[in-house]
Design a protein that fits this description.
By secondary structure, the protein is of the alpha/beta class. It is 37% helix and 16% strand. The protein has helices at residues 23-31, 51-54, 66-71, 86-92, 106-119, 123-144, 169-176, 219-222, 236-240, 246-266; strands at 18-20, 38-41, 56-57, 76-80, 97-101, 150-157, 162-163, 179-181, 204-208, 230-234. The strands form two sheets. It has a five-stranded parallel sheet with strand order 3-2-1-4-5. Strands 6, 7, 8, 9 and 10 form a five-stranded mixed sheet that branches.
């Protein structure tokens, strides 16, 4: 079979010893009924929280302990082109088969679910999940068509200030929410230079709860640069985790529009 980078990977039998180095993909495995097959995870794999007690933590998403991974004798290692480094993946391939995901769109996310269904003999579970996500997306699109168009600056880091620009999954979900990405003329996750004497005019500023853990107190730090914007702290997992997290994301987005955004814009 092929992974999402169209690389041929050799699978002789259904893998039963899985290491996942991507938090959203770890959650997806559990929701497909594969928790017992997971032997290793990252320190960022926090859903469900019990995994950190039951599974071996082999490192993070950018750096791992290769000796720990080798000792776990995995049959497959699940990675992502964006989350994991090329150098790390090359070393991992010396230990076991590596399956790479590459996610930019909802369609990519649904394809990955189906690929995991095929790979791990969970076709029925994967098909049901894809259908439910697709239905939720359709319902949300019907809801969002009546919402006003607004520009959004989506921050993922501070010191330096970094945003989600175009060509990533966050941008896909911003557009699905009917937002114009304020930094959509830039690429990927750029640093931006903010100056108080040159205020920005985005309608909304979203401070993501991850990877930087923005909280309400950070709103005042960004206020001088966006004096007229509605500033919100948002759940970064809903905007950046693909896989089974999408089962919850559309309900979250609807609540965001109905309550936080409507309250701020209507005063």
């Amino acid at each position: 079979m092929k992974d999402q980078l169209h690389r041929h990977i050799l699978i002789e039998k259904t893998p039963r010893r899985i290491i996942s180095l991507v938090p959203s993909q770890t959650e997806l495995l559990v929701d497909l009924g594969l928790e017992s097959s997971i032997v290793g995870i990252t320190k960022f794999c926090v859903h469900p929280i019990r995994l950190k007690e039951d599974k071996v933590i082999v490192g993070g998403t950018k750096q791992v302990h290769f000796d720990k991974i080798k000792d776990l004798n995995p049959e497959i290692i699940l990675c992502n082109k964006e989350e994991n480094t090329k150098e790390m993946i090359q070393e991992l391939e010396k230990i076991a088969t590596v399956h790479l995901s590459d996610i930019y769109t909802i369609e990519d996310a649904l394809e990955l679910i189906e690929l995991y269904g095929e790979l791990f003999d969970k076709e029925n579970e994967a098909s049901a999940m894809v259908k439910e996500i697709s239905n939720k997306k359709f319902e949300f699109e019907d809801f969002i068509k009546d919402q006003p168009k607004r520009s959004v600056a989506y921050f993922i880091w501070k010191q330096p200030w970094m945003v989600a620009a175009r060509h990533n999954f966050i941008d896909e979900l911003l557009r699905l929410n009917g937002f114009d990405n304020y930094y959509g003329n830039l690429n990927r996750y750029p640093e931006v230079a903010l100056k108080e004497y040159l205020p920005e005019n985005a309608d909304i500023v979203m401070l993501s709860s991850e990877p930087f853990p923005f909280k309400n107190e950070h709103k005042q730090e960004v206020r001088p640069f966006f004096p007229n914007a509605t500033i919100l702290v948002v759940d970064g997992e809903m905007f950046s985790w693909y896989g089974s997290r999408l089962l919850k994301a559309f309900d979250y987005f609807k609540t965001l529009h109905q309550h936080q955004l409507s309250r701020n814009f209507l005063g």
